[in-house]
Amino acid sequence: MGKVVMYSSVSVDGFIADDNDQVGPLFEWLSNGDVPLDESGGIRVSRASYDYTRAYWDEIGVTVVGRHVFDLTDGWGGKPPGGIDHMVVVSHRPRPEGWHPGAPFHFVDGVEAAMARARELAGERTVEVAAGAVGGQVLAAGLVDEVAMDVVPVVFGSGKRYFGSVDVQHLLEDPHLLIQGTRVLHLRYRVRR
User: CA-to-CA distance for 177 and 151, rounded, in angstroms?
Assistant: First the structure.
């Protein structure tokens, strides 16, 4: 079984979006380099960010997101971002009627059921969990193996927290990966058990 990684780009003060769900400069590192990250060529990063991010994207089998993120992105038009095989959407509501019927999106009620479905779909590959409310719930349930952050040098002051509404202490190991890209610092921590 693959590992579970909680992930997002994040401000240095711990936010993944502002109060209005705007990400501001959090994803500018995905367009400030000269190395194409995917076949489209629309995402261009520094060499250091490419070496890390491409390898990470290639290990992901499934990404788990909440319904709020799904709705904000209009489900990425039915095509999971970054070449990911499947998306699991944690939602009390079913797939929107008529919405891309063949798209590899699975709507599951509840975090634990969503994680079980994601692990089944991912097999030996990584299950990525979007940081924020759902990511915090998965961490609180003890289901996260690693925390991955792309830390961007901006201070939001308020907004949507990386760890959602987690209100208890969780210890992480020292970072086992630290890579400096252009306008981003890639960090990974294992969750202490």
Answer: 13
Distances (CA, A) of 60 to 13, 53, 81, 96, 126: 27, 11, 11, 25, 5
- What is the pLDDT at residue 1? 75
CA 149, CA 129: separation in Å to the nearest integer? 12
pLDDT of residue 83: 84
CB distance 182 to 46 below 8 Å: yes
Q: What tokens does 146 get?
A: 């690693």
Amino acid identity at 79: K
Q: How many domains does the chain divide into?
A: 1
The CATH number assigned to the domain holding 122 equals 3.40.430.10
Q: Positive or negative, the Cα torsion across 10, 146, 68, 100? A: positive
pTM tops 0.90? yes
Low-confidence ranges of the chain (pLDDT < 70): none
